[in-house]
Write a structure and sequence with these properties.
Length: 299
């Protein structure tokens, strides 16, 4: 009986160890090694839109980390965590996203080796982009955005948004939104300064996830928020555009996550839009009908 129990425990341990190793190996093999440039940081996802051309921190092929090209430290990967050992302490990061050319880290805590003090971070996020052989960043990758959902109502897939040509004036950039596994058609958006997708979930209760995008301009403060749905084999607007003021969108409406909500009624959604009433800026909370309609001229 003891031998049987020992065999069972050993089997479970081996399964757990193999599983952890596979997770670690998948992260390692998915281009974690290479030269990464820090291009966005802050205490929220919104801060990741920040861009800086300065090389702050890079991860190199030789398993070292440099800061401003001066110092080097070892790093190790443990499952979905990245541990960087520096001369003055140790950083623990959680790997939130890893693609071929982008890396998002959540800085969890820092242990000072000189004082043994531990500093806990409050959701401090850092985003890196991989450099190519000529030390240049993939111009599309640094502006890329992704979300995950069942956009065709059946399979889980990843939507990827990226500009088509970054050599022209940014206000005239065209963007494509395509799915990683080709479960939905490609959507083309024209003349957008930036594209940040928001996963809205299944707003109309038909099993298909919707997503939203605010039509950002270079210096705009009033912009429409559009909700897209894949309906009968094509992309459509789920509802009419929602008028939003920048300060409302990014502060009161939680970076756009609180603009639209589903309701218990299959034909209605709850929306919050910006308006000016009695000479004052305000947010109007109301219900509007769900009315999928065609996207004219791919916008």
């Amino acid at each position: 009986m003891k031998n049987l129990l020992f065999i069972i425990l050993l089997t479970l341990f081996c399964f757990y160890s193999c599983t952890q190793n596979k997770i670690s190996e998948s992260i390692t093999s998915n281009n974690i090694k290479g030269e990464w440039r820090l291009m966005g940081y802050g205490y929220s996802e919104n801060a990741l839109s920040f861009k800086d051309t300065t090389v702050y921190e890079c991860f190199y092929l030789n398993g070292k980390v440099s800061y401003m090209g001066a110092e080097c430290w070892n790093y190790t990967i443990l499952n979905d965590s990245l541990i960087i050992k520096r001369d003055y302490g140790k950083h623990l990061y959680k790997i939130l996203q890893l693609t071929v050319d982008s890396l998002i880290l959540l800085d969890i805590d820092f242990m000072n080796s000189n004082t043994n003090d531990e500093l806990l971070y409050d959701d401090f996020i850092e985003k890196y982009y991989k450099l190519n052989a000529t030390n240049e960043i993939n111009q599309c990758a640094q502006y890329r955005d992704t979300i995950v959902g069942k956009f065709n109502g059946k399979e889980v897939d990843t939507l990827i948004a990226e500009p088509l040509d970054t050599t022209i004036n940014r206000s005239f950039w065209d963007w494509r939104i395509y799915s990683k596994n080709n479960t939905v058609d490609t959507l083309i958006l024209t003349q957008r300064f930036s594209v940040k997708m928001i996963q809205e979930g299944d707003l109309d209760g038909n099993g298909t996830d919707e997503f939203g995008i605010r039509r950002e301009s270079d210096a705009g403060t009033w912009d429409d928020y559009y909700v897209y749905t894949f309906d009968n084999g094509e992309w459509k607007y789920l509802i009419n555009p929602i008028w939003t003021y920048s300060a409302h969108f990014y502060t009161d409406l939680n970076n756009g996550n609180d603009v639209v909500e589903s309701t218990n009624h299959p034909d209605l959604v709850r929306v919050r839009f910006s308006d000016i009433r009695n000479d004052d800026f305000c947010i109007v909370d109301t219900l509007i009908p769900i009315a999928p309609h065609s996207i004219t001229s791919q916008e």
